[in-house]
Amino acid sequence: MQHSAGAPLPPPQGPGYGSGGWAHQGPRQGPQQGPQQGPQQGPHPGPQQPPVPHQPPAPHQPPGPRHVPAQHQPPGPHQPPGPHQPPGPRPAHAPHGAPVPPQGPPTGQPPADSTGHIQLPPGGPVPIPAPPRAPDGGTGAATLAVLLIGPAGAGKTTVARHWAMSRRVPTAHISLDDVREWVCSGFADPQSGWNDHSEAQYRLARRTCGFAARNFLANGISCILDDAVFPDRPVVGLGGWKRHVGPGLLPVVLLPGLEIVLERNAERSGNRRLSDEEVAGIHGRMAGWYGSGLPIIDNSKYDVETTARVLDDVLARSLTSPPSW
């Protein structure tokens, strides 16, 4: 029967260790007495001594081998009887009352602060990356963070995902729209009107994407984010991304013609499909990026693969001469 105050578990299956390879530690009352034994008896039985109160085990000290006398002893008052164990080795010269030295360090015992998980470095602001050294003229194996800007229907998500999949080094794609749609109940759809609720969800999604990007980059994985950032709202748009990710973020604008944007928007479904009036209004506001100093790609006549290749070349030039924004 287990002691109500937390007595040791049943005796291990091996001398000094449990079945999982962990050292079994118990209190020592003397050089020959273990936690599972009652008071020792001599060859002539006498009055039984009262049991010694239970003491907590000493931290980080594996026990020595248990010694079981030839004469069978009944189990202790706080422990059910276990299987009979043969007597273990005992040092030749051990002073009376001294602890028995361990026979060897336990194997397979993890550190006390181990959780079994890989320790990841904390994510911090992304610095400006070094210029690449790739023979093909692209970004090569550079670890970088990219922000792909464009109106609805420009192909940001498709191009960003293709570019991330075509790189030779680990690269992640983080879509702001996907993170915003994590909200299932109470989703604030901007098509129903831009208000404080939709603005708060947008800021929350952007901050979440920024945290994810910094964690990926801190562990050597590049990332590309896509968002419809308006040039007439730099504080909550481009400036917000720079605060959440870091100064090393490389923005690129994807801006095809209005006819292409309307055509691609018509192929969309769900809450990502906008009305023609909304698409035209967003496209007109995006034209403000001309003259901003940011690189702009007109992919009106490019397919997805070609656009991704042009994007990689633009990013390689941005690494050599970062844009001021």
Query: Mean pLDDT score, rounded?
Result: 74
The name of the CATH architecture of the domain at 145-315 is 3-Layer(aba) Sandwich
**Total number of β-strand segments?**
5
What does the oligomeric state look like here?
single chain
CATH homologous superfamily of the domain at 145-315 - what is it?
P-loop containing nucleotide triphosphate hydrolases
Summarize the helix and strand pattern as letters. Answer: EHEHHEHEHHEH
Helix content: 25-40%
Question: Which class do the helix and strand fractions yield?
Answer: alpha/beta
Task: Output the CATH topology of the domain at 145-315.
Answer: Rossmann fold
Termini gap: 72 Å
Number of DSSP helical runs = 7
Radius of gyration: 35 Å
Strand portion? 5-15%
Largest sheet: 5 strands, parallel
How is this fold's topology laid out?
Layout: E1 145-149, H1 156-166, E2 171-175, H2 176-180, H3 196-218, E3 222-227, H4 238-245, E4 249-254, H5 258-266, H6 276-286, E5 296-297, H7 304-320
Helix pairs in contact: 1-7, 3-4, 5-6
Tell me what you see in this structure.
The structure is a single chain. The chain is an alpha/beta fold. It has a domain of 171 residues: P-loop containing nucleotide triphosphate hydrolases (Rossmann fold, 3-Layer(aba) Sandwich). The longest helix is centred in the middle third of the chain and has 23 residues. The protein starts with 144 loop residues before the first strand and ends in a 5-residue tail after the last helix.
